[in-house]
Amino acid sequence: MSNVQSQNEQTDKIYEKAIKIRLQYPDSAINLLNKSYEKYIQKSDTLKAIYSILNQSEIYENNAKYAKSYEILWKAVIMLDNSKKESLKSVLYHRLGRIFSYHKREKESVKYLKKALNIQKGIMEDNNFSKAALVPYYYSLVATYRELKKDKLTEAYLDSCYMYYKDKESLMDKSFIDFEKACQLIKTDSRKAIKLLDELYPWFKDNSPTYLVLFNKYKGDAYLATSNLNESEKCYLEALKISKEYNSHVDFTALIYQQLSKLYATKGNYKLAFENLNKEKELDQTVFDIRSERNQNHIEIKNEYLIEKQKQNQLLQEQYLKQLEQEDKIKNLQRIVLLISIVFIIGIGFSYVKRLRYKHTSERRMLEMSKELEIKKKNEMLEVKNRELATSALQIIEKDELLKMLKNKIETSGTDKSKVQQINNVLRTISISNNKNWEEFKLRFVDVNKEFYDKIFELFPKLSQGDQKICALIKLNFSSKDMAKLLGISVESVHTSRHRIRKKMNLDRSINLEDFINSI
């Protein structure tokens, strides 16, 4: 076995021995616990060192040395100040709250007890523990409000104890909760309270004999309420005997002497009543009065730790404010840099978008101009070709006129019949050639004005070929006379054709046919 392990076992044995003798020999137990505390501190075992403190505090409390208990508990609080051991913090605050309650310091007592309860609630939620773990903390509030004689609050927290209590899950036995219930029953049904206390007595005798000081005191109160003075006296005397035997709940004995004084006065034994009243006052002054040397420091609550803690908090607050100011300056600088960056990015973005827009607009304008030029060029080419077609058509007309004139001259002159026959054959050939010329003209017109031809056919499918010829010649700006010559029909026939075309196109009289056809 190593030397370190051997020392650890020796320290643990000192601690265990102190626990065993704490009721019979409290002073010796405190010395042993203090020794174990120092050894645990040397080995940096904070957890066990705090348990040594808690047990010392409990012994001081049982002997009504609350100033000592208070002082040593704050030592543990300082040790846990920056620790994450929340469960131990809740225990310490719970014990501090109970010490304040003994002196009827309700505000401080409830503050620490509720602080302990809230810490335990946080532990329970973080670790998904059962709410049964809250029962001891609710129980402390029950006991505190019972001592402060605030029945409504006592009953409210007592209900919480019963609500959350579960066998094998709660950290305390249900007998303690039932005891508090019996204490409340004394005010409404003393006999029922006595019956419940009788049922609970065996458990307290076997498991918590020191608690019988409180048990017998309240049982005596119950008998006193039923005017059973003899049984009440027995209970009070038994409570004093147990307190002396275990050196426990010394502070509570003052209340017992007070009750005995009332009991003996009721019996008419004023001597014993006076004696017990003096004992109650003497004990009350020793335990609670501000003149008591051992409790004076506790009553005044002159705690150097709290003063130092306030200084530390103030210093931390000042440092925190300076840090905040520095952070604000840095944040403001960051905001300025960010704002400048955003403005710069927006400027670049705006310039880029503007450039893209300008480029797009320029390209669009170029395309539009190119398209316009292309259309213009196409129109010019179309116009040129149409002029060529018109010229060609006029040449055909002139040729036809010439041929007709020649034919007439030949027919009027007396010529040999055999030659006349030959001339007629030539004229027929010319006529056929003219038809070919027209077909060639038509093909060339359709090729040049294909879009016009397709569109007019699409819009007016009922137009005949003759109508289409008229429309083509109108497109070439031919007059009715030239149309008649080219087509070999009369001018009246041209006018009739134009009228028929207007009707098929369903044109109003106000619309000019030439303008309409040229717009297609």
Attribute tags:
mainly alpha
Provide a descriptive summary of the structure in words:
This protein is mostly helical and 520 residues long. The chain has 22 helices and no strands. The longest helix has 109 residues, at 304-412. The radius of gyration is 62 Å and the shape is rod-shaped. The two termini are 117 Å apart. The relative contact order is 0.04. Mean pLDDT is 81; it is low at 289-305.
How do the strands and helices of this protein lay out in sequence?
Layout: H1 3-21, H2 26-42, H3 46-62, H4 66-79, H5 86-102, H6 106-127, H7 135-147, H8 151-164, H9 174-185, H10 190-207, H11 212-225, H12 229-246, H13 253-267, H14 270-287, H15 293-300, H16 304-412, H17 417-448, H18 450-459, H19 465-475, H20 480-487, H21 491-505, H22 513-519
Helix pairs in contact: 1-2, 2-3, 3-4, 4-5, 4-15, 5-6, 5-7, 6-7, 7-8, 7-9, 8-9, 9-10, 10-11, 11-12, 11-13, 12-13, 13-14, 16-17, 17-18, 19-21, 20-21
The strand count comes to: 0
Largest sheet: none
State the separation between the terminal residues, measured CA to CA. Answer: 117 Å
Structural class category: mainly alpha
Précis, in short:
The protein has 520 residues and is mostly helical.
